[in-house]
């Protein structure tokens, strides 16, 4: 059996197949590339119907990343999934504090989740940053509270928590917040989806 072994050829053929599956969509080319990357990562064309963003969110994210915005994540799975080489080329990094001793100690003291606590402690650093939340609805809810209180102002929030407890609700709250966002509706999502969205924007940087 013959099969393709060149990684670039595999990805190129995959994207061509996805293009055909998606067909025409009333969105920009940059937005289409985000959807294609999510479908490519999940192997699920149904995600094309679930991705949502605020007006201009994709271009806002690309601009922020191109000027050197760092990416702050709720879990290390998102952090390691983000293209660190492209970030480093702009002098930026992917940051996740969930395993830091100060976060663990504070979470134990307060009884809050470590994801919430990490964003609480990182808030002073997150103005103008891209936030990518792929796992924890509590982190997204808490981040939105901090944004509403004026404690931080990210350039963009990518929120794709997955699961059956608070995930869909946290993403719905994101769509109603006064901040640029990219999300997916319902219970689907996850760390790989959050990383895929960020990578789709990184790959479009000038």
TrEMBL record:
Coiled coil: none annotated. GO terms for molecular function: precorrin-8X methylmutase activity. Transmembrane segments: none annotated. InterPro entries: Cbl_synth_CobH/CbiC, CobH/CbiC_sf. Keywords: Cobalamin biosynthesis, Isomerase. Residues 10-202 form the Cobalamin biosynthesis precorrin-8X methylmutase CobH/CbiC domain. The keyword Signal does not apply. GO terms for biological process: cobalamin biosynthetic process. Pfam families: CbiC. Pathway: Cofactor biosynthesis; adenosylcobalamin biosynthesis. Belongs to the CobH/CbiC family. PANTHER family: COBALT-PRECORRIN-8 METHYLMUTASE (PTHR43588:SF1). This is Precorrin isomerase. It comes from Heliomicrobium gestii (Heliobacterium gestii).
């Amino acid at each position: 059996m013959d099969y393709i072994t060149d990684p670039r050829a595999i990805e190129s053929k995959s994207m061509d197949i996805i293009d055909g599956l998606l067909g025409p969509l009333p969105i920009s080319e940059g937005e289409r590339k985000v959807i294609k990357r999510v479908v490519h990562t999940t192997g699920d064309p149904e995600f094309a119907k679930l991705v949502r963003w605020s007006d201009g969110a994709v271009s806002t994210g690309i601009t922020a990343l191109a000027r050197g915005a760092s990416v702050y994540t709720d879990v290390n799975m998102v952090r390691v999934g983000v293209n660190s080489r492209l970030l480093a080329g702009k002098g930026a990094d992917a940051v996740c504090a969930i395993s830091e001793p100060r976060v663990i100690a504070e979470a134990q003291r307060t009884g809050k989740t470590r994801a919430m606590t990490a964003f609480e402690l990182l808030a002073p650093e997150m103005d103008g940053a891209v936030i990518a939340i792929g796992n924890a609805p509590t982190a997204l809810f808490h981040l939105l509270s901090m944004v509403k209180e004026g404690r931080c102002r990210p350039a963009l929030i990518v929120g794709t928590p997955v699961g059956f407890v608070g995930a869909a609700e946290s993403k719905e709250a994101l769509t109603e917040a006064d901040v640029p966002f990219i999300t997916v509706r319902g219970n689907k999502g996850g760390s790989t989806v959050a990383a895929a969205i960020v990578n789709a924007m990184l790959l479009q940087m000038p």
